[in-house]
Write a structure and sequence with these properties.
Elements lengths: L1 H12 L12 E2 L24 E11 L2 E11 L3 H7 L1 E6 L5 E11 L2 E4 L8 E4 L8 E2 L3 E6 L8 E10 L9 E5 L7 E11 L5 E4 L6 E6 L2 E8 L20 E5 L4 H9 L13 H12 L3 H15 L1 E2 L1 E2 L11 H7 L1 E2 L1 H14 L3 E7 L19 E8 L2 E5 L19 E4 L8 E2 L10 E8 L8 E9 L2 H12 L2 H13 L6 E12 L4 E11 L2 E4 L2 E5 L23 E2 L4 E10 L8 E3 L7 E2 L2 E10 L2 E10 L3 E2 L4 H12 L4 E3 L7 H10 L4 H13 L4 H13 L3 H14 L3 H13 L3 H14 L4 H13 L3 H14 L4 H14 L3 H14 L4 H14 L3 H14 L4 H13 L3 H14 L4 H13 L5 H10 L3 H6 L6
Parallel strand pairs: 1-5, 2-12, 8-18, 17-19, 25-32
Antiparallel strand pairs: 2-3, 3-10, 4-9, 5-6, 5-10, 7-9, 11-16, 12-15, 13-16, 14-15, 20-21, 20-23, 21-22, 23-24, 25-26, 26-28, 27-28, 29-30, 30-38, 31-37, 32-36, 33-38, 34-35, 35-36
Helix pairs in contact: 5-7, 6-7, 8-9, 12-13, 13-14, 14-15, 15-16, 16-17, 17-18, 18-19, 19-20, 19-21, 20-21, 21-22, 21-23, 22-23, 23-24, 23-25, 24-25, 25-26
């Protein structure tokens, strides 16, 4: 809250119009017209008093001048606040007014310390805080170090700014901030003064203000008590015009037409293109290029956008007055005013009707609620009329061409500047000819759906964000620039995991298009459901949320907005395995024209062995009327039930088989080449070797995975890496090395639960069962979140070494306290199955676990083993099949299904081979339970 107040204080002290001023603050007593605020008795303050003790604003209008006075006092409640206030910073625009300092005081108990009387003076700094955004304002910052500011003090700052703006033709405007509850303020006031009878309009944009007016000695006075009442809560998706503006504005402009006439004077173009000048040559070139006025307008717009770079200049009376076309051309840069003036001059010289038009980049449809004043706008564009059709042309844009000429910028309202005046004009919202951002993503998943896929992406964007991205990436270091590019890339690839090993970002100076290219690996998230593999490719409908809350009576007449303007096209091409044979799509291959106020389009289908999806998503164009909310909610819900998915054929090979096929066809080579490039970028980053090792373990390349884990551990040893390498070494029958990794993990993190359980298991299998059980018992006695896991490990070891009854008893004790724990029930069922005891009760445990578990595959596998023990092979096979339907790569179920089939005289050798490929020591594991093929 205090941070917001400090920003507000700075903003108030920098308000004003155009005025001749010095480059240093003035020092003077408080003006006689000011009504003093009530005194602050610092001896009676406590921690219960608000931090903002005084928030006093007073503004006086006389003829064409406004003086904005402020008196603010803050209680220094904390050392952090003392540090924040220890350097006072007051920004102001010397071209727009004089900053006058009246007082800087510290109230300490009954003492008033006058900093100015002690000789303190502000130092002036020039600080262009938005230079990276192409913004030279000429702002100065007056700074003063407040010495010996203590907790418990009150800091009081009193200052004013006078402003007189010749660009307004003798008119005045001003804005005052309105802090609102729940911000606590001791004394708050806004006081406005102007001569009685002056044509001053004022408007507050918050409701419920306590306002009094009076006339005295030829002056009108309006008093507003602060803070303002807390604004009514509004839904986040309400259109901008419903949002409260915490400000009060005043203006002497009678209406929009009066403002239009006044500002039109600055955009008169007669004689601004001298014969024989470089601009005249460009006009002649455009005239010769085509007789068509639309083509000429497009060429003129392209010239201004491409030839003149953007740079705002607020100095030299430049806040509202544009520089001349000749100066803009010679400098090669200009702001929106300069670009509009140049474009206007060219269009009018070509015989095209055109006017400058004021718009707002930030206010959207709130502009119509503002008072007529230049402060209601922050941008200017061109309104042209060709063949009766209105065109809105923004010279500060980039990359506009003939196809884009009918596009309407998302400003909602405009004020054309005409000598005969104009009312405010509503700008129609319609879909642009081209998306602002277009991405083309090509994913090569021909190696198989179970593996990462190389991808290449090209993203092209134009418009306001291009310059910002270009400037930031140019100013940042390579790592920061890469991170920014990667953020843009990842935003296009859904929530799939990905890594990038090549990226470029470049702006085409001629077209103004930013092109980002990237290459990397992506892990499409195929999910096994309903007996087939499916891939969600619908990031459009899935991204449409429509959950408007209009339950409150006060909200029921508020429409629903689709949010800030955006327009994106995404083309995704996924090259499928087997040239796409047997693959299908399910869900929405086309889309309705809009959902949830978002405008949509889609083309999707299979083409030459690839899935191709082309989507366009445009927000900020529509609103949903309150009466249509229920219908729209149903439409969105219905569309979300048919999200577009790719579906693999039913005979898609399981992972182990896909690995064999990929190896035979050398399909892993592009994937491994991608990992090599990724690692080569930062060969000393351990996590990169982890990623490749994880892939190698997924394709059962144990030696390759071991090499990567060796390198990662050399670079950065962690418990997790040692445990993973321990498992790889175990698979490779390096028991000594595996045990060493477990001990290393415990050295690094003595309380690591996974390492403790693994060590207990190894000790038991090395003939030291009691040592292993003791290790687990110590952890069980300590309790904690992993206690049940330690009990399950204890029971498993007891069962493995012919002490199954003890293991069951241990599990009985914890299950009694958590009878609905599916994992514990499965552990007890598994123990009974492996120990071959209490099999009837084991079936009950497994069945209950299946009913409770979110993923019942483990419990199905356990129950299948129970049925196998009982000789009920058909039921065993049914459970193993069901487990594999849930988890096609479950090694245990594959192995036991193979054994069960062989016991029935059928051929289960393929399942056994698959299980051994995925888990080379599985025969040893089951031999401990007395089960052998």
């Amino acid at each position: 809250m205090i941070g917001r107040f400090l920003l507000l204080l700075a903003a108030l002290l920098s308000m004003g119009g155009i005025a001749h001023a010095g480059d240093k603050p003035l020092y003077a007593p408080v003006p006689a017209w000011v009504t003093p605020a009530p005194a602050i008795d610092a001896t009676k303050l406590s921690d219960q008093d608000p931090i903002i003790l005084r928030f006093d604003q007073q503004q006086r209008v006389e003829k064409d001048q406004v003086v904005a006075y402020s008196d603010h006092a803050l209680r220094v409640a904390t050392s952090q606040l003392a540090t924040q206030l220890g350097t006072l910073q007051l920004p102001w625009m010397p071209e727009q007014g004089d900053l006058t300092i009246h007082a800087v005081q510290i109230l300490r108990g009954g003492q008033t310390i006058d900093m100015l009387a002690k000789g303190a003076r502000f130092t002036v700094l020039q600080r262009e805080q938005k230079l990276e955004q192409g913004f030279i304002s000429g702002m100065l910052t007056a700074t003063l170090t407040i010495e010996d500011l203590r907790v418990g003090d009150v800091l009081r700052v009193v200052a004013s700014i006078s402003s007189r703006d010749p660009a307004l033709g003798g008119q005045v405007q001003s804005i005052a901030a309105l802090p609102a509850a729940p911000m606590p303020v001791g004394f708050g006031r806004l006081r406005l003064l102007w001569p009685t009878g002056s044509p001053i309009l004022w408007r507050a944009h918050l409701k419920g203000l306590a306002v009094t007016t009076s006339e005295k000695d030829g002056w009108h006075e309006t008093l507003v008590a602060l803070p303002a009442p807390k604004p009514a809560d509004l839904p986040d998706d309400a259109p901008a015009r419903f949002q409260p503006l915490p400000l009060l504005e005043l203006s002497s402009f009678a209406d929009w037409r009066a403002l239009s006439k006044t500002m039109a004077v600055h955009y008169r173009t007669a004689g601004t293109i001298p014969a024989g000048s470089p601009i005249a040559a460009e006009v002649a070139r455009i005239r010769a290029a085509s007789p068509d006025p639309r083509t000429r307008a497009a060429l003129a717009l392209q010239l201004v956008q491409d030839r003149i770079r953007y740079l705002f200049r607020g100095m030299d009376n430049g806040n509202y007055v544009p520089q001349s076309p000749e100066r803009t051309w010679s400098l090669g840069y200009g702001d929106c005013k300069a670009k509009t003036m140049l474009l206007l001059a060219i269009l009018r010289d070509l015989g095209i009707e055109a006017d400058a038009s004021l718009v707002s980049l930030t206010m959207s449809d709130q502009v119509a609620q503002r008072l007529p004043a230049p402060a209601a706008f922050d941008h200017v564009i061109v309104r042209a009329v060709i063949d009766g059709r209105t065109l809105w042309l923004d010279g500060t844009g980039r990359g506009s061409r003939l196809a884009d000429l009918d596009d309407v910028p998302p400003f909602r309202h405009a004020l054309p500047l005409r000598d005969d005046g104009s009312d405010l004009v509503e700008m129609p919202m319609r879909l642009a000819a081209r998306p602002t951002t277009e991405s083309d993503i090509q994913i090569d998943q021909s190696a198989g759906i179970h593996f990462p896929a190389p991808f290449r992406m090209t993203l092209r964007t134009r418009g306001a964000d291009v310059e910002m991205v270009a400037l930031v990436t140019g100013a940042a270091g390579k790592e920061q620039a890469d991170q920014m590019v990667d953020t843009l890339i990842n935003g296009q690839i859904r929530d799939w995991s990905s890594l990038v090993y090549s990226r470029t970002a470049k702006v085409d100076e001629k077209t103004g298009v930013l092109t980002i290219t990237a290459e990397g690996l992506v892990w499409p998230n195929w999910v096994f459901e309903d007996g087939v593999w499916k891939l969600m490719v619908d990031q459009t409908v899935e991204g449409v949320t429509f959950t408007p809350d209009r339950a409150r009576p006060a909200w029921r007449e508020i429409p629903v907005s689709s949010g800030a303007p955006s327009d994106q096209g995404i083309r995704t091409t996924i090259r499928l395995p087997g040239k796409g044979a047997g693959f299908t799509t399910i869900g929405n291959q086309t889309l309705p024209a809009s959902l949830g106020a978002v405008v949509l389009s889609r083309k999707a289908g299979l083409d030459d062995g690839s899935l191709v999806v082309e989507d366009r998503i445009s927000a900020g164009l529509r609103e949903i009327a309150p009466a249509d909310i229920a219908t729209e909610r149903r439409a969105v819900a219905q569309a979300r039930t048919r999200l577009l998915k790719a579906q693999a054929p039913a005979d898609t090979p399981p992972t182990w088989r896909a690995v064999e096929l990929a190896r035979r066809g050398k399909a892993f080579e592009p994937i491994l080449a991608g990992f090599d490039r990724y690692i080569a970028q930062k060969p000393d980053e351990a996590g990169r070797y982890d990623l490749r090792a994880a892939f190698l373990t997924d394709v059962y390349d144990w030696p390759g995975a071991l090499r990567d884990y060796d390198k990662a551990i050399t670079l950065e040893p962690t418990p997790a890496r040692h445990l993973t390498r321990s498992w790889v070494r175990y698979v490779m029958k390096d028991d000594k090395g595996s045990l060493g990794d477990i001990r290393e993990a415990l050295e690094l993190e003595p309380g690591n639960g996974a390492a403790t359980r693994a060590l207990a298991e190894r000790l038991a299998r090395d003939g030291k069962l009691d040592d292993g059980l003791t290790l687990l018992a110590e952890q069980i006695d300590q309790g904690g979140d992993e206690r049940n896991d330690f009990v399950a490990s204890q029971a498993s070891l007891l069962g493995e070494f012919d002490r199954g009854e003890e293991g069951v008893a241990a599990l009985d004790a914890v299950i009694a306290k958590a009878p609905g724990n599916a994992g514990l029930l499965n552990s007890r069922c598994w123990l009974k199955a492996t120990a071959n005891l209490a099999l009837e009760s084991a079936i009950k445990d497994c069945t209950k676990s299946i009913e409770l578990a979110q993923d019942p595959s483990a419990a199905l596998d356990s129950r299948g083993l129970v049925y196998f023990r009982m000789g009920r092979y058909e039921e065993a096979l049914a459970d193993f099949d069901a487990a594999l339907t849930q988890s096609p790569n479950m090694t245990a179920s594959l192995y036991m299904r193979g054994i069960t089939l062989n016991r029935q005289g059928k051929n289960g050798n393929a399942d056994l081979a698959a299980a051994r490929m995925m888990s080379p020591r599985i025969d040893e594991d089951y031999a401990r339970y007395g089960i052998k093929p």
